[in-house]
Amino acid sequence: MRLAKAALLFMLAPVVTGAQVNVGEQKPEDSLPFTMTTVATFKLPWRLAFLPNGRMLITEKPGPVWLVSQTGEKIQVENTPKVYFQGQNGMMGVFLSPHYATDHSIYLTYVEPGDYGGGYALAHARLNATGTSASLENFEVLWRQVPTGKGGQAGGPIAFSPDGKYLFLAVGDRQRFTPAQDPDQPVGKILRLKLDGKPAPGNPNFGKTGAATIPLIDPARDTEAAKTAKVVSTYTFPGPNLTPAETWAIGVRTPYGLAFSPRGELWEIEHGPAGGDELNLIERGKNYGWPLVSYGNNYNGVPIPKPDTRPDLMKPVLYWVPVIAPGNLMFYRGTQTFPQWKGSGFISGLGSQTLNRIVFDGHGGAKPAERWKVGHRMRDVEEGPDGSLWMLEDASPGALIHVTPKAPQVTQ
């Protein structure tokens, strides 16, 4: 009944045309065209965001947020929220408001302490930063995962629409499998919100009201649970804030990267299970298949039907078997430092320890370019104000790495 309801709620368009491409077997380049310089180290750094003055904000998974100069000087940001730090959970993303020049606001994504292991949250605050201090003011939680629940795979990325009016929030499935297909639960979804965290007009189910009783799922990972999740209790939404009003797309697993291309397309990168990392073009009302289909298998060896068996579901444009375990996705917009890469996408690789360049055609297509072996688990990659790249290493200590062009060799 619930899946039938999902089919009615989300009108599915045809899948992406063209064959899906497995990039997992791609071999690394023979050499690096850039130099990597460690500037500072952190405890499990997760995400960085540049301020207009060239300093950056860097999150650490255990909780602190740092204001950091490009030469590595650190100032701890005060008044940050407490986090539930365990496994994949903790402090995750930091993002500047699209109107930062006037409102000085930042957004944070994190897992907060709470019942049954804590829940994913989105908050914003005004950043008050001087040369010697930094703090958050007027801190407000804009959105919370309801119901809360233990499990990893919260996600963490957000992306602002090109017009600066809306915020897209990626919510992982929290290792609960079937709720990613449940329209009444927020996990395993891409949400589209106004900047104040409220559901955005134009969402597939905006304006629908009411209450809904939903199952809370036992996230046990045994063989039987992989086939059918176990209901252990229920939760009733009080309405009228029913989750479907926020939902833009469903059926995602572990979304760690979410970004708009220069042509205005929304792209998402996510971890598969044992195989099957995905690069998806995210569109309104579409179903991306998890956990109904995957190019990977369950960790316990139970097979998952492949996407080709379900033409009603969206297929990834690119996928990886074996995985790269992506950390983030960003688009390079610079015209200096690396002008040859303008418009390219970059994906940081955790398991593969790589930096991966992807070429996008602006019409829903993408193809792999270079794959560079950098020798570190790369959690994040971002573009600096001068067009150089900055990466964060997923380690403790984890390096903040500055990526600059390799000096040309002088021949005699």
Structure description:
The structure is a single chain. The longest helix is centred in the N-terminal third of the chain and has 8 residues, at 2-9. 4% of the residues lie in helices and 41% in strands. The protein has helices spanning 2-9, 100-103, 223-227, and strands at residues 21-22, 34-42, 45-50, 56-60, 65-68, 74-76, 91-96, 105-112, 119-129, 134-144, 155-160, 166-171, 189-194, 212-218, 230-237, 247-250, 254-260, 266-271, 277-282, 318-320, 326-331, 345-349, 354-360, 366-373, 378-383, 389-393, 398-405. It contains 3 helices and 27 strands. With 412 residues, the chain is mainly beta. It has one domain (2-405): TolB, C-terminal domain (Neuraminidase).
Q: Quick gist of this model?
A:
The chain is mainly beta and 412 residues long.
